[in-house]
């Protein structure tokens, strides 16, 4: 919510404003920009990251939103773009369908099928978003080899070092509940949280790295006004840092509420991790 108006209403209102004021811009957002996938390549400085993990390349994809308006072709294009980067490990940020527990549950299998082509030497890990149901979507992803973390943490070994990957549900918000998930983790910790609204809690718990989606980068970004529908979030898109916690927020792949993107193209990301001290030296 933003000032008593929901994000859904803001996006619909913005789309209507764009259509009314500039039909050409709206057509561009529908016909072209939402298809204009790009790869965001960024180096993230991560506090406490063990030197042997320096240079680890994380592929990150979020907010697929498979639906009538986010087609198989669009989903495949995003997956192919990420796979062309050959990441060491892949992480997924949730919202694989739109209202997957309701009228669009028929797209659960289609979303999992699109993501089945994802693979990486150190695995594929995911959390659920607020549009994903708690049973069918994780089960479908699991059949494709994706490890879905629901208020859970797993540990893998890379270059002789532990890498802890924790994932929280969208509705897990309290510090005490997040602390329970990450308790016992090493300093090489990545927290997957669908919404960047969990940044304050992560910073309070000294989580080194958070990967999020949910915002769509605002989806409709107006010149001079910015991402009006995403102002409630501490970070709308890209990377930021709060105390010792680094966060990256993806603009996502699909759209929600209105099938329009304006000044906010869809993305997949290749994130190269580097220890903070090694970059400062």
Describe this structure in words.
The chain is an alpha/beta fold. The chain has one domain (about 5-280): Purple Acid Phosphatase, chain A, domain 2. Helices cover about 25% and strands about 25% of the residues. The protein has eight helices and twelve strands. The strands form two sheets. Strands 1-12-2-3-4-5 form a six-stranded mixed β-sheet. A six-stranded mixed β-sheet has the order 6-7-8-9-11-10. Strand 8 (about 190-195), helix 7 and strand 9 (about 210) form a beta-alpha-beta unit. Helix 3 packs parallel to helix 4. The longest helix has 15 residues, at about 5-20. The protein is globular and about 50 Å long. The N and C termini lie far apart (about 45 Å).
Concise overview:
With 281 residues, this protein is an alpha/beta fold. It has helices at residues 7-21, 23-31, 72-83, 108-115, 136-142, 175-182, 199-204, 276-280, and strands spanning 38-46, 57-61, 89-92, 124-126, 147-148, 152-158, 161-168, 189-193, 209-212, 238-242, 245-249, 267-275.
* Parts with pLDDT < 50 across at least 5 consecutive residues: none
Give the H and E element order.
HHEEHEHEHEEEHEHEEEEH
Mean pLDDT: 91
Tell me the major beta sheet: 6 strands, mixed
CATH class: Alpha Beta
How many E-type strands? 12
Query: In CATH terms, what is the fold-level topology?
Result: Purple Acid Phosphatase, chain A, domain 2
